[in-house]
Amino acid sequence: MKVLAPATIANFGPGFDVFGLCLDEPRDVIKIRESNEIEVKVEGFNVPEDPEKNVASISALALLKMLKAEMGFKMKVKKGIRPKSGLGSSGASALGGALAMATLLEVKNKELIIKAALEGEKAASGSAHGDNIVPSLFGGFTILKSLSPLEVFKLDVNFELVIVLPEVEVSTKRAREVLPKYVPLSDAVRNLALASALISALKEGDIEKVGKLLDDYLAIPYRKPLISWFDNVRRAALESGAYGVSLSGSGPAMFALGEDLRSIGEAMVEAFGNEGIRAEYFITKVGGGAKCLDV
Ligand SMILES: Nc1ncnc2c1ncn2[C@@H]1O[C@H](COP(=O)(O)OP(=O)(O)OP(=O)(O)O)[C@@H](O)[C@H]1O
Ligand SMILES: N[C@@H](CCO)C(=O)O
User: Fold this and answer.
1) In a designed cystine with 22, which of 139, 186, 251, 257 is the match (CB 3.0 to 4.6 A)?
2) Residue 103 annotated as catalytic
3) What percent of the chain has pLDDT over 90?
């Protein structure tokens, strides 16, 4: 049994903890089979092999516990999404681990799978936010209305975007610690207006309009001390023709929409370089969600 669990962009501008976009790549690949022992092996980016510490096995174990089932397993995690990247690295592994175990046990209940995956996400980032796990499972653009009961609205969208990944790390845990408990009402209203308009623009398929609706007043302003380069890289993207640009999840990855994605990516990489930070860019499209393969 093998699960492909894709990277995601959480928040997607104004949708803090609610919006999520599934990417076609990169992805984690989680292989699982029943065994007498519990073992985790990791390939690719470095994450723990201790089953109590790897997000994928934590989620698989959480599902077993929820079902009051006992079973050993051997898990192989091919880690294709860089941890602490802002691309939903822990979310993809958490979803992959829960989905792989669910498939082994022939469990189809999506709410249960997400509940188990949230245990992994919580272990990684200190918070059971679902805006990476949900798009990684369902694909497309997701609006997470409620986790319990699970209520997800999905938009099937189709466009390309450029992702820029700098060689710095931002811990999601830290990026959540810096957020205030309360925000000014005027900022909440601004985000509400942007988020509502963004959904309408996505439904129209007007990506230029979507790009102009990516501002955020709830999280990014408070995270600036952790992402001091953000404004300069954003400016470079806009000056090179991007319709819009934002942080992916809690960063450091950024994404931009536009026509000439290659030029925008190059301009953003150069802007990171001016800050003394090496970065790379890649172009991808909206992904279709996690896949289970019988191998
Ligand atoms: N399978 C796994 N995948 C990713 N991270 C893991 C995994 N197992 C354990 N971890 C640990 O979880 C932590 C992930 O931290 P964090 O949530 O900040 O990153 P992230 O999920 O990659 O961020 P983001 O969601 O913004 O991409 C790291 O300390 C990492 O070592
Ligand atoms: N919504 C989460 C996503 C983290 O990947 C946050 O911004 O903290």
Assistant:
1) 139
2) no
3) 97
CA angle at 245 for the pair 276 and 154, rounded to the nearest 5°: 135
pLDDT of residue 126: 85
Domain that holds residue 239: 160-285
| Model confidence, pTM | 0.96
The closest of 73, 4, 6, 12 to 255, measured between CA atoms, is 12
* Residue 172: burial class (beta carbons within 10 Å; 0-12, 13-18, 19+): buried
**Is residue 172 among the annotated active site residues?**
yes
Q: How far is the CA of 159 from the centre of ligand 1 (A)?
A: 27
* Cis previous bond, 135, omega within 30: no
126 & 225 share domain = no
Residue with tokens 């993809």: 92
List the beta bridge partners of residue 63. none
Q: Whose CA is nearest to atom 4 of ligand 2?
A: 249
pLDDT in tens, 113-141: 999 999 999 998 888 899 999 999 999 99
Residue at a domain's end among 154, 173, 208: 154
Catalytic residue among 172, 266, 270, 275: 172
Residue 145, H or E segment: strand 141-146
Ligand 1 contact via 80 beta carbon (within 6 Å): no
Alpha-carbon gap, residue 244 to 27, rounded angstroms: 25
Ligand 1 atom closest to the CA of 56, numbered from 1: 1
Interface ipTM: 0.95
The reply to whether ligand 1 has any atom less than 6 angstroms from the CB of 56 is yes
**Ligand 2: centre distance to CA 38 (Å):** 30
Number of independent structural domains in the chain: 2
